Amino acid sequence: MRKIVKKGSAFAVAALVTLFATTACTDESNTSGGGRVEDLPEGTYTGGELGTTFNSTSSAYEDPAPAVANAGMVSAFKAGEFFFERTITQNTRPFNGLGPLYIRSSCIACHPGYGHGKRMDRYRADDWGNGYLLVVTDDQDNYLSSLTGMPQTKAVPPFKAPIDEEQIQISWLYATDRWGNQFPDGETYALIYPEVTIPEAAYYVPLQVGGNTIPYSRVRVRLESTIGVYGVGLIDAIPDDSLKAQYQREAAAGVQLNPAFWAGSDWGPSAGYTCGTHKHPKRYTYALTRGPLQDAPGANAIWNITNVTHPTKMGHYMTAAYATKASQDPDVQALFYNYFPQYNLTGNVETDIYNYLMMTNIPDSLKIPEMSAEDYTNFMVWHRGLAVPAARNLGDKDVQRGKQLFSQIGCAYCHRPSWTTGDDRFHDPNGFFEEGDSRLPRFPYQKIWPYSDFVQHRLYMKNDIRTGWCRTTPLWGRGLSKICTGASDRLHDCRARNVVEAIMWHGYSTQSDAYESVVKFRNLEKSDRDAIVKFIEAI
After folding, report:
1. 0.85 cut: is pTM over it?
2. Taking 80 as the threshold, does the pLDDT of residue 34 lie above it?
3. Which residue ranges make up each domain of the chain?
């Protein structure tokens, strides 16, 4: 148990947490400003004393962690926050650099309220809360190499978008599980899932995999949604050895792990990044494509979502197939120098367009990053320094009962409740930040409660995620999604509209790694099922 003085302001509480963090306050005589001291159940400090905010309002995902204030970085945090919230333009500093192709014109457009994207009925980049990213592959789950990994549907003149988003169609279909979408006591639920159609005429680029053209009949499209951005610095602070030990435990227990990440007794070929002598296991995104944080979703998203260059990403987010197509397009050739006269470097418009898009053979004077080193540093202070909302109502008897059942039926196996951070001397594969760089906040030796093992499992859902392997999503803070983002959608494509639907999708197939836990959940009394839901909403 820890004790804090409860104040009216979330920031006041955070300040007190910061004050007490080094003394591990347990003295009930401590009071301040007329507040009162009370015991808090274990797990309340979801982000530890250095990473938790007690704000539970609509801005709960937006607070700086106490570690930010401790390090004197609040001003840098606020400056970095601007780059997340502001619309990026083509030429208005410091928020300039949009394009030539892009996915969204701002970060917050994908992360409403700093949280998970919303379930959408159509794909439009400008629809507020649309966190959907297109996943376009062949029938063997290989990404189309003529498109970027996260395909772009917007372009600045004179360029044309690789995919015409006006032609993208999302259909929501109903699924029926083996129990007829009904619990034994008669309560019913619904299961829905998206199907995405992009006609062949919508593609500006050729359909290629590995440079080879494939027929349109082999193209597959899925959706993946953005996730919340709060608490990612705390995840970064989990020691690599701790993650490796988690893989070892699950492998020893007979859990089938993705061979790309775990090769029997050690990391697999796709498990991580090598930085000097360090190999850092990936821990971010549904597909475990990123980690550590200094080269993870935020550092990449400010580049590949808006196509803003910065000191670690000096080229455009672009494919050679698109650059070739655009450089040979008469419409683009006719207008290119009107928009980019400084890139008339060879007199051959096709060559100049291609080199501009691929950022090759261009004088160093034109390679100045659109986002300065100072602005990028501030952005990463913000990204690494976001707090996690404290868990709520953990003393409630129904919540306590739900916590017990959550563990008893096996949910806590994959949704591992807690971790302890290490010394947090992070590494940057790009070399921009030094080991344990003093310019960024740190979270050493904190007990945190993300409720994830950060391992991929398979649920075998209808119209499943690409490859079928999906990282266990951290549950911390998700109970505040409705108030912070306006939606409570869950799972990788927002198919679950509430906690019950998310749980039941876990048991859609008997092959699912969570099937037995779902069977146990299904056979509980309604009051017990409700208690589990209440617990999940509380954490």
Report:
1. yes
2. no
3. 2-71, 106-228+303-366, 232-295+373-388+407-479+498-538
